[in-house]
Amino acid sequence: MPLSEHEQRLLEQIERALVDDDPKFASSVRTGDRRLKARRKLQLGALLVLVGLAVLVGGAVAPSVPLGVLGFLVMFGGAALGVLNYRSATGAVEAGPVGPAGGRGGSTASRGRGGKPRKQPLKNRLEERFRRRYDQ
């Protein structure tokens, strides 16, 4: 939902006051779009996978075990970089536990440190599904 003109003006005033009050902190907070950085890392990971694959094939063609191992490590590093930045780059959201009202489980009791939802044990989830099935 976009901000109204009044809210945008207030936000700009707050930003200017922050920059005037503590410019060093303001520059460290103003990092830009996180998705853009994550997308660049995702692209770098894909590129590393391709380069690693080429080095791995090169190591297989010229029977060189160290070259093959190096290619595998580069490929593995690229894949890890891509996997670790996929969610941030695409904005994908993890499927969380479903509460009894059919919405996402968002109670403060089911949240751990930092406000992230805590995963319930398998036994509790199965019991809750069983109860929901027979309550209908």
UniProtKB/TrEMBL annotation:
Biased composition (Basic and acidic residues): 124-136
Biased composition (Basic residues): 113-122
Alphabetized Pfam families for the sequence: DUF3040 (PF11239)
Domain of life where this protein originates: Bacteria
Listed transmembrane segments: 44-61, 67-86
Disordered, as annotated region: 93-136
Keywords: Membrane, Transmembrane, Transmembrane helix
InterPro entries (alphabetical): DUF3040
The protein's name in its UniProt record: DUF3040 domain-containing protein
Biological source species: Geodermatophilus amargosae
Biological classification of the source: Bacteria, Bacillati, Actinomycetota, Actinomycetes, Geodermatophilales
